[in-house]
Design brief:
YbjN domain-containing protein; 6-stranded antiparallel β-sheet; about 160 residues; alpha+beta; Put_sensory_transdc_reg_YbjN; Yope Regulator, Chain: A
Length: about 160
C-alpha cells in the first residue's frame, strides 16, 4: 500500500499552543511533591499570586508566581543565612571573602541559579518571566535552588552567619 504525499498533512505546533496547555500551578505542585520528603509543603493563594513553602534537607524553599500570564514572574529562593542587624553596616574582611566566594560560585557553580542579598540575608534564587516557561524549567529551577541551598547553608552559616 502506498500513500500519496498529498494525503499527508502536518499541522505546525506553535510554542504558545504547548504553553497554553501547561498548568503552571499543577507543575509547581508536582515538583514540590517529589522534593518534599517530610510533607511540609504549604501554599498561599492570594491576589498577588501564589506562594509555596516547603523544607528540603536543612533549608526552607519558597516558590512564587505573581500570576499566570506571560508578564508574570516565576521565582524560587532559599535563605542560606542572615547577616545580622549591624553586620551589613560594618563590612568585614569576612564579608569580602564571602562575596568573593559567592560571586565565584555564580560564575559556573550555580548554573541557572544565583546567590543574592535580600534585606539582611544571603539567598540562592532563580527568577524568570512565565512567558514560554516549560515544565522542565520549573523542575530545574526548584531543584537547583533546593539543592544548592541545602548543600551550602551549613558551611556558610558556620563561616559567616549569625
Amino acid at each position: 500500500m502506498t500513500v500519496a504525499a498529498e494525503e499527508l498533512t502536518v499541522e505546525p505546533v506553535l510554542a504558545e499552543d504547548l504553553m497554553s496547555s501547561i498548568n503552571i500551578v499543577d507543575e509547581i505542585e508536582s515538583v514540590i511533591s517529589t522534593l518534599d520528603y517530610d510533607k511540609t509543603a504549604m501554599v498561599s493563594h492570594g491576589e498577588h499570586g501564589n506562594l509555596w513553602k516547603f523544607n528540603y534537607g536543612s533549608v526552607e524553599v519558597l516558590v512564587k508566581i505573581t500570576g499566570e500570564t506571560d508578564d508574570d514572574t516565576f521565582t524560587v529562593w532559599s535563605t542560606l543565612f542572615s547577616f545580622g542587624e549591624a553586620s551589613l553596616d560594618e563590612p568585614s574582611t569576612n564579608h569580602a571573602k564571602l562575596m568573593h566566594k559567592v560571586l565565584g560560585m555564580n560564575w559556573i557553580g550555580t548554573l541557572d541559579a544565583k546567590f543574592a542579598i535580600s534585606g539582611n540575608e544571603l539567598v540562592v534564587t532563580v527568577s524568570r518571566p512565565i512567558a514560554d516557561l516549560s515544565p522542565s524549567e520549573i523542575s530545574r529551577g526548584i531543584t537547583l535552588v533546593a539543592t544548592i541551598a541545602d548543600d551550602n547553608d551549613e558551611a556558610f552559616q558556620e563561616q559567616h552567619g549569625s
